[in-house]
Amino acid sequence: MAATEILELEEELEKLTRASFSVVPWSNNTFLFRFKEAEDRDLILKEGPWSVANNLLVLQPLPDGGSVADIVFTHCPFWIQIHGLPVEKMNRANAELMGRGFGRLLAVENSHDGILLGRSFLRVKAETKLDDPLPKGFFLRRKSGYDDLWISYKFKKLTNYCYACGRIGHENKNCKFVSREAGERSGYGPELRTGRRVRQAAIPIEEIRQQVDEAEVRVNLLLQRRPIAHDDGDA
What we know:
Layout: H1 3-17, E1 21-25, E2 31-35, H2 38-47, E3 50-52, E4 55-57, E5 75-83, H3 92-100, E6 105-108, E7 121-129, E8 137-140, E9 149-155, H4 180-184, H5 205-225
Antiparallel strand pairs: 1-2, 3-4, 5-7, 5-9, 6-7, 8-9
């Protein structure tokens, strides 16, 4: 992590908490975050994951008496949306069941009743193993007469990841896990992120100029057809 990236991260975290902290380079791309207040540290851990230059920053608390060398950075907590479930399946029991499928379940979005219908999807927070491909979803088998239903996942604050193999930590061009042909059929893409914006296609400048010229011609023709106003009154 470069010095400019450390400053960028410090500014982002300070906007959230106004916390007083420092970042100390440690070893092997590992950094120690030192907070003056434990409450600020806990809030940063709770609101993660964080990213630097769109690369995932994996944060782990340092236990009392522990060493940085004792910490493993193999898992990261994500808020995960579960889309496409039938209404009768949208309850806390199913949210917990599916949440445990990602790894260690940390939280389920709260609801006043047992049926979680505050949104069109369920939301859980779970630790995800970073060495494995991100899960895309699953087919839900239904009763006779109904086709299997695709249930999809979306990850909040998901940073750069490989659309070929589905792993965090590298991009398609650097993938060593699958062939190029297999990567093109992987089914991974930006849809795995929450809040994805649809980017409008750029309009070529030649097309814009043509549209302007055509508009000017239409305006000139319209002006030629209109009578010219004049005043017959006495001066």
